[in-house]
Design brief:
By secondary structure, the chain is mainly alpha-helical. It has ten helices and no strands. Helix 1 crosses helix 2, helix 2 packs antiparallel against helix 3 and helix 3 packs antiparallel against helix 10. The longest helix is centred in the first third of the chain and has 106 residues. It is rod-shaped, with a radius of gyration of 47 Å. The relative contact order is 0.07.
């Protein structure tokens, strides 16, 4: 029994040492240093103050821990939000990249289809002109052989091949629909090629520099009436030369490949503009030749460009 009792005493001493020994040691040291008249009361008050201080420190620690927890939660939330923002931004960027690639593929397919159709149209025009010339020569041969008693057929109209090309170009402009108008109106600052092509177009249609010296003005001119205005333009009619000079100057050094970099509709407008200049140049040359043949002074007209030569030839367009 004695050994057991000693063991319990040792356990009690250990527990007291671990849980209250340090506090009591400090409290008794304070009593010895202060030597109060009522040491018991002093000891009790010291222990109460210590307990209050420990409670306050525990509360402060709990508050600091709570603040740290909230800060950690906030930072974790912000990190998650930033990660999500980056993920969405990357996803959007990838979607935009894929959309750009899709549009580029579609644009390339449109140009390939256009080139194939262009080759076919050129072949048809050449065949049509060749057939007309063959028919004329056949009739002429029949007349010379005395098989027909009619007036010799007139030579083919030199403008015919230009008219046929012009008609093909005009037909292409069916793409100038509301989608094209919306595309133009979305541009705050357009591609240089689009700006140049539209500026040259409106010069050709009779607009003055003050009408097209700012993109906002050009954008206003691109409206639902544009296609009808182009269709109503007569490239053979006599005009003051200024519009053609401005048009040619605007497109100086500019090619179909440059126009293609802007957009498909802009490319087709460019094709129409240069074909119109070709037709007009041929018409001016014809009027001049007819005037000279009749011994008259030809009216001064500026064709803007020699037919079929100033724009790298028909086969390149």
């Amino acid at each position: 029994g004695t050994a057991t009792g000693r063991r319990y005493v040792q356990m009690d001493q250990k527990w007291l040492q671990e849980n209250v020994g340090e506090v009591l040691s400090s409290a008794l040291s304070a009593v010895v240093i202060s030597m109060p008249s009522d040491p018991i009361e002093y000891l009790a008050l010291w222990l109460l103050r210590h307990a209050a201080n420990e409670e306050r420190r525990a509360m402060e620690k709990a508050e600091r821990d709570e603040i740290a927890r909230k800060i950690a939660e906030y930072q974790a939330q912000k990190a998650a939000e930033e990660a999500e923002r980056l993920r969405l931004a990357q996803e959007k960027e990838e979607q935009e990249r894929q959309e750009k690639l899709r549009l580029e593929r579609e644009e390339e397919e449109r140009f390939l289809a256009y080139q194939q159709a262009e080759e076919e149209r050129r072949r048809q025009i050449e065949e049509q002109l060749a057939a007309a010339e063959a028919e004329r020569l056949e009739k002429l041969a029949a007349i010379e052989a005395g098989q027909e008693d009619v007036a010799p057929p007139a030579p083919l109209d030199p403008l015919e091949k230009y008219r046929l090309r012009y008609g093909a170009r005009l037909q292409d402009l069916g793409v100038l629909d509301q989608n094209f108008i919306n595309e133009i109106h979305r541009y705050a600052t357009p591609p240089v090629s689009v700006y140049k092509v539209l500026k040259a177009l409106f010069y050709l249609l009779g607009k003055q520099p003050k009408d097209v010296d700012d993109w906002s003005k050009i954008r206003t001119l691109v409206n639902g009436d544009l296609l009808a205005t182009i269709q109503g333009f007569d490239p053979i009619k006599k005009y003051k030369p200024k519009r053609f000079k401005l048009c040619v100057k605007t497109l100086a050094g500019f090619s179909a490949e440059d126009a293609r970099k802007g957009s498909y509709p802009a490319f087709l407008i460019y094709q129409w503009v240069v074909t119109t200049l070709d037709l007009r140049a041929a018409a001016v040359a014809q009027r001049k030749a007819e005037a000279e043949k009749e011994g008259k002074a030809a009216e001064v007209e500026d064709a803007g460009v020699a037919p079929g030569r100033g724009w790298r030839g028909w086969s390149r367009r």
